[in-house]
């Protein structure tokens, strides 16, 4: 093993261990419900929430350790050279050879994850009363996802492989430009054509709720396009709302579980929060960060593709574009792991800001608090997550911290 191999190995082990320690601390923290939230769960519900967290955590541990073990076996028993010989035997040229290798690796990853998806959906989610997915829907979702991935991902990956194969020193710039256009296009394609393949989106019917949403949007100058209700109850009892797309493709989506189980004030408060993300430019800024990050990735990738020690670390006798792409993703693991901390912190800061915006513009601080409580209760959320677990995994702040911030904002005099 050379130095690069040791760096990658230690990064993988450190990342796995850190997540497991954070999970263990999170489980311990779940034993204590903060006094301000002790009325949210009954004693029976509190025990159920702890059991749900424990079941999900233990399955995650098993999946993570098994995944790491199988990967290390594949690596050290020279699985990558074997894969290379296998796809080279097809004699289809470097781009199609690379696509074949990614297809095989993707198939192995999907097959590995399938039992865990089945167990998580039909055992854990079923046991705790969340699952409404039928086996037919589960299978169709996987087939649709595979077809969509092939239709969109395969041409994009083929382009990246081709550019790095033939475009020389400017390949990373071309790939950056292409992927940037792809990222922008996704914001149009996904809400308009992809999401309806999986769920039914019905325009919100006329009535008090829609009238209040439209009136609120007018007061803040929000360019409201479409409001849809999604049949989230088809798969789960959990509720949510989200904002997608931009321009004339912009849409607000409410889960039917949210509309049916929360008051008009609570739904409006949640939407005010989502609109706050748009008005505060969080969505735009997130896209700009993603574009900049992609540019840095492609530049570093251009340096790593011909880096002989990187290929030696995985026992590869030759340097290939597709193997360089795979190996670079593994070498980048420690950087991605460290970047996760500030990016998650930035996301949590955005949530606080969106909450404050919703309170200032709608005056529905009480409704926002009650809605958040209801969403956490119906999801059996951990009410006392450990700070390390939050730093690693949470794009949203813990419930208690959000409530305190909302209440402080609600007590401020109108500006």
Automatic annotation (TrEMBL):
Active site: 274, 355 (proton donor)
GO biological process, one term: CAAX-box protein processing
Domain CAAX prenyl protease 1 N-terminal per the UniProt entry, residue ranges: 29-200
Top-rank taxon: Bacteria
Chief site of localization: endoplasmic reticulum
Compartments where located: Endoplasmic reticulum membrane
Co-factor binding comment: Binds 1 zinc ion per subunit.
Residue ranges annotated for the Peptidase M48 domain, each copy included: 203-408
Name of protein: Peptidase m48
């Amino acid at each position: 093993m050379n130095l690069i191999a040791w760096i990658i190995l230690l990064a993988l082990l450190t990342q796995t261990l850190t997540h497991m320690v954070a999970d263990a601390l999170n489980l311990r923290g779940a034993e204590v419900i903060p006094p301000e939230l002790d009325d949210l769960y009954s004693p029976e519900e509190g025990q159920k929430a702890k059991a749900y967290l424990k079941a999900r955590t233990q399955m995650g541990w098993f999946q993570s350790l098994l995944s790491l073990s199988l990967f290390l076996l594949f690596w050290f028993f020279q699985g990558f050279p074997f894969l290379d010989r296998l796809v080279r035997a097809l004699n289809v040229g470097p781009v199609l050879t690379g696509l074949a290798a990614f297809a095989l690796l993707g198939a192995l990853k999907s097959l590995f994850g399938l039992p865990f998806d089945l167990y998580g959906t039909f055992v854990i989610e079923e046991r705790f009363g969340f699952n409404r997915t039928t086996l037919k829907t589960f299978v169709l979702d996987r087939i649709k996802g595979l077809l969509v991935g092939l239709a969109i991902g395969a041409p994009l990956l083929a382009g990246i492989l081709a550019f790095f194969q033939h475009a020389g020193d400017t390949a990373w710039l071309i790939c950056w430009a292409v992927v940037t256009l792809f990222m922008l296009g996704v914001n149009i394609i996904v809400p308009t054509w992809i999401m309806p393949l999986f769920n039914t989106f019905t325009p919100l019917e006329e009535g008090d709720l829609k009238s209040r949403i439209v009136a609120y949007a007018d007061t803040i100058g929000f360019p409201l396009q479409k409001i849809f209700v999604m049949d989230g109850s088809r798969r789960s009892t959990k509720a949510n709302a989200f904002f997608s797309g931009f321009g004339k493709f912009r849409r607000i989506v409410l889960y039917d579980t949210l509309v049916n189980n929360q008051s008009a004030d609570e739904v409006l408060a949640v939407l005010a929060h989502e609109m706050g993300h748009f008005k505060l430019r969080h969505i735009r800024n997130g896209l700009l960060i993603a574009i900049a990050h992609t540019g840095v990735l492609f530049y570093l990738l251009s340096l790593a593709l011909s880096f002989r020690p990187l290929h030696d670390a995985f026992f590869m006798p030759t340097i290939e574009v597709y193997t360089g792409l795979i190996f670079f993703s593994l070498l980048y693991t420690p950087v991605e792991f460290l970047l996760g901390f500030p990016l998650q912190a930035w996301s949590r800061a955005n949530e606080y800001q969106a909450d404050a915006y919703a309170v200032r513009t709608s005056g529905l601080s009480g409704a926002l608090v009650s809605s958040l409580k209801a969403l956490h209760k119906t999801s059996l959320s951990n009410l006392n997550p450990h700070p390390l677990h939050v730093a690693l995994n949470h794009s949203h702040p813990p419930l208690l911290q959000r409530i305190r911030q909302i209440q402080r904002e609600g007590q401020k005099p109108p500006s």
